[in-house]
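Reviewer has doubts. Consider these tokens.
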Amino acid sequence: MVRPVAFMENFAILAPSVEDGEIVLRMPLPDGVRLKLIAVRDTGLVAASILLGTADVPGGVVEVVGDELTGSQIAAAFGAHAGLPARYEALPLSVLGGGLDEEAMFRWFAEGSAYQADLAAVRAIEPTTWDLAEWIRSTGWTAPADRGRS
């Protein structure tokens, strides 16, 4: 069984903005929590390795992870790619507008024990697994237009 953690592709929706020349990333997650992330591409590569028998998965289950970063580290990765300073702002769960599934997910992430994924084990299965910086480069992400102060 392959269990992916949070997808890097979610940053297409939770995308950082540019405000006054600075990358700003906001999520309803405390900054000290390391969010485990995986590219959809890598989920497929790991699954293929397992299905083709080129990888051994003790217990038959692997949680697929490519990176583990705090909100500030995620913002910094986007900022480094854009060549801009970056900051992270943790938001309250209320910004999710009462979406119970989304609130439950971010509460679970905030507990810090949401996933037990082992980055070294995943890299042993698929050494080319992307970290967030590689995902940002590979997807061609570009900083949006500067919105100024909001």
Summary: Helices lie at 40-51, 71-82, 100-110, 119-125, 132-139. Residues 2-133 form a domain with the Rossmann fold fold (CATH 3.40.50.720). The two ends are 44 Å apart (CA to CA).
